[in-house]
Amino acid sequence: MQPSLATPKSPALVAREREREREREMAVGGFAVDGGNVDGLGGRITLSVVITCFVAATCGLIFGYDIGISGGVTTMAPFLKKFFPSVLRKAAGAKTNMYCMYDSQVLTAFTSSLYIAGLASSLLASRLTAAFGRRNIMVVGGCTFFAGAAINGGAANIAMLILGRILLGLGVGFTNQATPVYLSEMAPPKWRGAFNTGFQFFIGIGVVSANCINYGTAKISWGWRLSLGLAVAPAAIMTLGALLIFDTPASLVERGRLTQAKQALLRVRGRDTNIEPELAELIRSSDIARAAKEEPFVTIFERQYRPHLVMSIAIPFFQQLTGINIIAFYAPVLFQSVGFGSDSALIAAIILGLVNLGSIVVSTSVVDRFGRRFLFIEGGVQMFLCQVAVASVLAATTGTSGTERISKGYSILVLVLMCIYAAGFGWSWGPLSWLIPSEIFPMKIRPTGQSISVAVNFAVTFVLSQTFLTMLCHFKYGAFLFYASWIALMTIFVVLFLPETKGVPLDSMNVVWERHWYWQRFVNKESY
């Protein structure tokens, strides 16, 4: 006899349907949810959460400004004459190989010293954000960066220059650790991707602003002081902004401030929203963390957190091996090397930054619709093709030795290809590399996981920034093939090992690992 529509399904039928659904999700490595309404947790956007996350995202300004300003300043003759005269002499004598014009370990030390300091402060920040809150560490980072900018603007010798860079690095380390976690914890699950990309958007604004300032100050004998010293402006903006916002409910619960946590939830979710399920989930996660009584840097190496640890290392490692930050640091130097004049090189760097900024806006609008995996894969393919194309153009026009000068037409083609490359990065590995590590960890190891991610980012950036100009000198156009090969590898990694996290509440994230074809063997249901 056929059962009626009202008859409950048998347990066996329900189990088979669930298994089929699981197989469909595993086939694409993904996880399907109802946009943020999982376990009763809402996905509503309020004016308060928009303003709060917008203000917090401005912390990206200081990192972006530094990325943009460094490369431009290192092409300014007055700056080089005062601090690095040997580079000027070498550039003047570089008639035979255009790739080696700016190969100087002292000059790259100026750029890369920031990242050693950032690495140290990002690891320290995991304890500080847990003890004092995400918002307070953002304020500390802004103040430290402000001091470093002031010292750099008034630098009289290389020692002051390096000291300023170290303080800038400490500030960036604090903010880069605290801000992505803040944004992921504050945003509604359904729109977490869009809110978190705000951090990368302001990094992009910082880069473009710095490039424009470099262009305006390049002809002034003391313009380099203005470029470096004006870093106090984004530091002041983000520090004052951070003072005006409140900490995340998760951080407040973690520190035992339940009344404040409830008020914060009411403000960001809406006074007429039932916040009790979300608050109860935060309290449950906090209780699990307290009951564990383990050192977070030990806990994160447990088998059940293997997938989280791998992603917190692999994602920032791969992001830097796209080559984007190296190109952003040295864009003016790079474009000057391939045939642009000094002014034209700075304009080309501005164009590259604007393209990257526009692509971040695209990412904001689609990341919660198409998911993280789609953008990673599409962006990876796009960047790979562009890097191979740039290498091919340079090989064909400058020769294998780099002794032939590239024509204006081919210089413009290189710029176009680099813009397409920057767009691919801007809507994929740029914002998503901050988003993924900040959303995959349970509360008890979330600050630690983000610290490891930021530290890896700084460590790889240090190595690459210290070696890029030398690599460009020796590899020539092959440097772009080097990055293309890494982009191919990271795209394959995403296809095979990164599950979809779109729309999943932070404290329910364990489900994506349980359902993944590979990572399910490591996790258990008590991880969160």
Written overview of the protein:
This protein is mainly alpha-helical and 528 residues long. The protein contains 24 helices and no strands. The chain has helices spanning 11-27, 47-57, 60-73, 77-83, 85-93, 105-132, 134-153, 158-186, 192-217, 223-229, 232-244, 249-254, 258-269, 276-292, 296-299, 306-320, 324-337, 342-370, 372-398, 408-426, 429-439, 446-475, 478-497, 510-514. Helix 3 (60-73) packs parallel to helix 17, helix 4 crosses helix 5 (85-93) and helix 8 (158-186) crosses helix 22. It starts with 10 loop residues before the first helix and ends in a 14-residue tail after the last helix. The model is unreliable at 1-7 and 11-40 (pLDDT under 50).
Q: Main traits of this protein?
A:
528 residues; mainly alpha; disordered N terminus
Whole-number mean pLDDT: 83
| Protein structure class | mainly alpha
The largest sheet is:
none
Q: Classify the helix fraction into a percent range.
A: over 70%
What percent strand? under 5%
Order of helices and strands: HHHHHHHHHHHHHHHHHHHHHHHH
The geometry reads as: globular
Number of strands: 0
Terminal Cα separation, in Å?
44 Å
Transmembrane segments: 45-65, 106-125, 137-156, 162-183, 195-216, 222-246, 309-333, 345-367, 374-397, 409-430, 451-471, 477-498
Family: Belongs to the major facilitator superfamily. Sugar transporter (TC 2.A.1.1) family.
Main location: membrane
GO molecular function, one term: symporter activity
